[in-house]
Design brief:
The complex is a heterodimer of chains A (387) and B (323). Chain A has 387 residues and is α+β, with helices and mostly antiparallel strands. Chain A has 3 domains: 7-88, no CATH class; 123-231, Butyryl-CoA Dehydrogenase, subunit A, domain 2, CATH 2.40.110; 249-382, Butyryl-CoA Dehydrogenase, subunit A, domain 3, CATH 1.20.140.10. Chain A is 46% helix and 14% strand. In chain A, the strands form 2 sheets. A 4-stranded mixed beta sheet of chain A has the order 1-4-5-8. In chain A, strands 2-3-7-6 form a 4-stranded antiparallel beta sheet, with no helix packed on it. In chain A, a hairpin with an 8-residue loop joins strand 6 and strand 7 (210-221). The longest helix of chain A is centred in the last third of the chain and has 29 residues, at 276-304. Chain B is of the alpha+beta class and 323 residues long. Chain B has a domain at 187-322: Butyryl-CoA Dehydrogenase, subunit A, domain 3 (Up-down Bundle). Helix content of chain B is 51%, strand content 12%. Chain B contains 10 helices and 9 strands. In chain B, strands 1-3-4-7 form a 4-stranded mixed beta sheet. A 3-stranded antiparallel beta sheet of chain B has the order 2-6-5, with no helix packed on it. In chain B, helix 4 runs antiparallel to helix 5 (87-101) and helix 7 packs parallel to helix 9. Classes of the chains: A alpha+beta (387), B alpha+beta (323). Chain A binds chain B through residues 1-6, 9, 70, 280, 283-284, 287-288, 290-292, 294-295, 297-298, 300-302, 305, 312, 315, 318-319, 372, 374-376, 378-380, 382-387, and chain B through 1-6, 69, 214, 218, 221-222, 229-230, 232-233, 235, 237-239, 241-243, 245-246, 249-254, 256-257, 260, 264, 275-276, 279-280, 284. The complex binds flavin-adenine dinucleotide (FAD). Flavin-adenine dinucleotide binds at residues 125-128, 133-134, 158-160, 210, 363, 366-367, 369-370, 372-373, 376 of chain A.
Chain lengths: 387, 323
């Protein structure tokens, strides 16, 4: 065990830190769930990519830097510390990207990844359907192979960023006689294809952060299939592993929230201390964020040495989503009567964007597989309890 | 940056676990409750033969010269079996303190400790009572701002009975003949270091104990049938267990980080490892106590055991003495 960063790692940190200092927009961008904000975020992705910071873990040939997971964590730490914009293409770079590395053909990687990295093609994720939520194997949308095309019919829902995205990846039933997780195929669909209707759905904050996608005889070239026909479930499980595991929500995000929480507490100490439980909750949040960081470093080191991430990606998902909820709930109690005020309200001094964050934190235990489902996985696969 | 243990460290952990699980059974622990003094000299000899009594004793004094980082996984295993013998106390708190005091005292006692021929315990001002004082050959005790060393014949002990029959607790009065070993700033540093080491020992044992409770409860709930099925197949039961597993998973890395900090710095920065060790136990602002460590494990283990878990002779109850 040696917890000292190498010289190379420190140099890497310096490099990203100074690049961010020179490039992070001074004023925060608008929400990427608005048309203007989406455009701004897309441009930011292009800027990142120009500096070869789009996705540092990717091979150099694909615009990355071939970084290992430790460097990835360093990158994330600096990124959040600099309060740089959220990643509009998270479905692409964090979820589909790594899945393509594992299952994609060379042609697919070369065609898809560079445009993903520079924000030219932003991705949505199309798994959930009206009757297939936690029970994803109940997917009914179909894809029928006709010549060199799939013809897709059906409906997806809750598809994040789909309102302005360019592509979606999803699972479709290719074998009409199949049941459950057999007969499903992972297909990539351009969202500007004829026959697609995207209907925005407003989220708690009123902005259309996700959408329904309707498919009416949508034709998709067969080279957009990822993995074999009928093997969609296994491919999707790899994506879900990245979603719950290391990539989507790295510790830096929560450490940054924890630091902001400490700042908020310090700025409002006098009123906050009237309830002694608040201080305790702030400390607990800070320590839990640190725990999450240390645990992630431990996992990353294990993976670097060839280990695999298993059911513990489910413990991960529960831990970060509950931590995020706790931190935002604590911020709400510190803000007290101001907590419900929108930032432009005259009395809303110093409320920052805690309210938005609090709203979004409520979705953490739902997306990426609900926490109840994760608890089932932990009990059955990690602890070996009877089904 | 390499936050993993070496092959050797993991192998050592495995062999110590095998030994402890086979030897330190709940039956053996309960049998020791009936004996005078409640400790098992044969077991201490076995631990000495494995080199464990001398694990942190410097090689020059006949030990293995290992660090807190080498020992932390073993401390987890001591917790796993709820080992009543003061191995963690000795190896992680008393021996490092004695080594730091150095001089004649260290030269006289460390080889005997390594050989398993003598035991040393530490009693600080914040300990209301001193654990295992009755089997100690040497006691290092805080008296105000001074540390004194007293041999067994230089102290008067009064037994304090605990609800946990494995805990042997004493109020200690020191006769004036005891030797002063450190005063002032030097004593303060030794004491602060000992508290850091102690917090690490508590956290590491609590990790092991929580794992044991999970293992026992998974086994029990997989076997026990109600409504025609194992109770472990009910989701309410599963989710209790999953919650404990999540908390435990995230308590490990901070504990290992604390062990690293203690091992890496001969003079560890005082606040950090202790804070992290406390966090690992899920309590802040003071040392973790067994009732709380790690959060939920004990309560849920007891709860899911149902009626039988409330019985004195149940295996889970044998873990009562951790402190
Ligand atoms: C902000 C946000 C973004 C999202 N983004 C996307 C996206 O981009 N792409 C996409 O495909 N989907 C997305 N989703 C959808 C998300 O994956 C689903 O909401 C989730 O899988 C739950 O499905 P459901 O909503 O149908 O709820 P249901 O499955 O109907 O669940 C309702 C409740 O029942 C519980 N429940 C269900 N089954 C069990 C069980 N077996 N045991 C115990 N409890 C159970 C659930 O935990 C939950 O509390 C998003 C959701 C949110 C909130």
């Amino acid at each position: 065990m040696d917890l000292v960063f190498t010289e190379q790692q420190n140099a890497f940190r310096e490099e990203i830190r100074s690049w961010l200092a020179a490039n992070v927009p001074a004023a925060p961008l608008q929400s990427f769930d608005t048309a203007e904000g989406f455009k701004q975020h897309r441009e930011w992705e292009a800027t990142l990519n120009k500096g070869r910071w789009g996705m540092v873990t990717w091979p150099e040939a694909l615009g990355g830097r071939g970084c290992d997971l430790i460097e990835w964590l360093i990158f994330e730490e600096e990124y959040y510390r600099a309060r740089a914009p959220l990643r509009v293409n998270q479905n692409g770079i964090f979820l589909l990207g790594p899945t393509l590395m594992e299952y994609g053909t060379e042609e697919q990687k070369a065609r898809i990844l560079p445009k993903m990295a520079n924000g030219e093609e932003v991705w949505a994720q199309g798994w959930s359907e009206p009757n297939a939520g936690s029970d994803m194997a109940a997917i009914r949308s179909t894809a029928k192979l006709e010549g060199d095309k799939y013809v897709i019919n059906g409906q997806k829902t809750w598809s994040t960023r789909a309102v302005w995205a360019d592509w979606c990846f999803g699972m479709f039933r290719t074998d009409p006689a199949s049941e459950r997780h057999r007969g499903l195929t992972f297909i990539l669909v351009p969202l500007n294809s004829p026959g697609i209707t995207v209907r925005p759905i407003p989220q708690l904050d009123g902005l259309p952060g996700f959408a329904e996608i309707f498919f009416d005889n949508v034709e998709v070239a067969v080279e957009n299939r990822l993995g074999d026909e009928g093997a969609g479930w296994n491919v999707a499980m790899a994506t879900a592993g990245f979603e719950r595991g290391l990539m989507l929500r790295s510790p830096a995000r929560f450490q940054e929230t924890a630091r902001r929480l400490v700042e908020l507490y310090t700025a409002n100490r006098e009123s906050a201390d009237r309830d002694p439980a608040v201080k305790d909750a702030v400390i607990r949040a800070y320590l839990d964020a640190e725990s999450y960081c240390l645990t992630t470093y431990q996992t990353a080191c294990r993976l670097n040495k060839g280990g695999k991430i298993g059911a513990e990606s489910s413990t991960n998902k529960i831990f970060w989503s509950e931590l995020d909820q706790n931190m935002h709930a604590t911020a709400m109690s510190i803000l007290g009567a101001r907590a419900e005020l929108l930032p432009h309200a005259p009395a809303a001094q110093g409320v920052g964007n805690w309210l938005d964050g609090w709203l979004f934190s409520q979705s953490g235990p739902i997306y990426a597989g609900t926490n109840e489902v994760q608890r089932n996985i932990i009990a059955e696969r990690m602890l070996g309890m009877p089904r | 940056m390499d936050f993993t243990f070496t092959e050797d460290q993991l192998l050592f952990q495995e062999s110590v676990r095998d030994f402890l699980v086979n030897e330190v059974t709940p039956e053996r622990i309960r049998a020791s409750w009936e004996t005078d003094g409640g400790r098992d000299p044969a077991l201490w000899r076995q631990l000495a033969e494995l080199g464990l009594t001398g694990i942190t004793v410097p090689e020059a004094h006949g030990g293995l010269g290992m660090s807190a980082l080498d020992f932390v996984l073993l401390a987890q295993e001591c917790g796993y079996v709820a080992l009543p013998e003061p191995l963690v106390h000795s190896a992680l708190v008393a021996v490092p303190m004695l080594s730091a005091i150095g001089g004649e005292l260290a030269a006289q006692w460390l080889p005997k400790i390594a050989a398993g021929e003598a035991k040393v315990v530490v009693g600080l001002a914040q300990n209301l009572v001193v654990e295992d004082a009755h089997i100690a050959d040497l006691l290092i005790l805080q008296q105000g701002e001074t540390l004194v060393a007293a041999t067994a014949d230089q102290v008067v002990l009064e037994h304090n009975e605990s609800i946990d029959p494995s805990r042997k607790l004493f109020t200690v009065a020191v006769r004036p003949v005891a030797t002063t070993v450190a005063t002032g700033a030097e004593a303060a540093t030794l004491i602060a270091d000992a508290l850091n080491h102690g917090a690490l020992g508590c956290a590491a044992q609590a990790l092991g104990l929580a794992q044991r409770m999970i293992d026992l409860t998974v086994k029990y709930t997989s076997e026990r049938q109600q409504f025609g099925k194992p109770i472990g197949s009910f989701q309410a039961v599963k989710h209790h267990m999953a919650n404990v597993a999540v908390r435990l998973e995230y308590a490990k890395a901070p504990t290992h980080r604390a062990a690293y900090a203690i091992a890496a710095a001969s003079q560890p920065r005082l606040s950090r490892p202790r804070r992290i060790a406390r966090q690992a136990g899920g309590v802040r602002g003071r040392e973790p106590r067994r009732e709380e460590l790690p959060p939920g494990a004990r309560r849920d283990g007891l709860h899911l055991g149902g009626g039988p878990a409330y019985l004195h002779e149940k295996g889970l109850g044998a873990g009562e003495h951790l402190g």
